[in-house]
Structure formats: C-alpha cells, structure tokens
Design brief:
single chain, 62 residues, mainly alpha
Length: 62
C-alpha cells in the first residue's frame, strides 16, 4: 500500500508543478521580482521527485 501512496505523491507533484507553470505563464516574473525564488522552488521539487522515484522500488507494500 505504501508504494501506491508514493506513486500518488509523485503524480500529485507533477500536477502541482503543471499548475504552477500555467499560473506563471501569465505573470511578468521579471517585474514581480520572484523569478529566482520560483526557479529555486522548481529545482528543489524536481530533486525531491527524483529522490522519491529512486526510492519507490525499495518501499514494501503492506
């Protein structure tokens, strides 16, 4: 059951990042001044997702 939860979290991360990308498309990020923070968040979330994908095969199902 835990493996399915990890897969669900990975899917939810993908959905959330797609929504963030869509939300950012209409903003003037250079004038808003938070492009650096957005890029850092995107990098950290991508790293977290990769870590989850790497560990998923080792998680036991209940």
């Amino acid at each position: 059951m835990r493996k399915f939860r990890v897969d669900a979290v990975i899917g939810d991360i993908d959905k959330a990042m797609s929504k963030l990308r869509d939300a950012m498309s209409g903003l003037q990020v250079r004038t808003a001044g938070f492009r650096k923070e957005h890029d850092e968040l995107a990098r950290q979330v991508a790293n977290y997702k990769v870590d989850l994908e790497d560990v998923a095969p080792y998680i036991k199902n209940d």
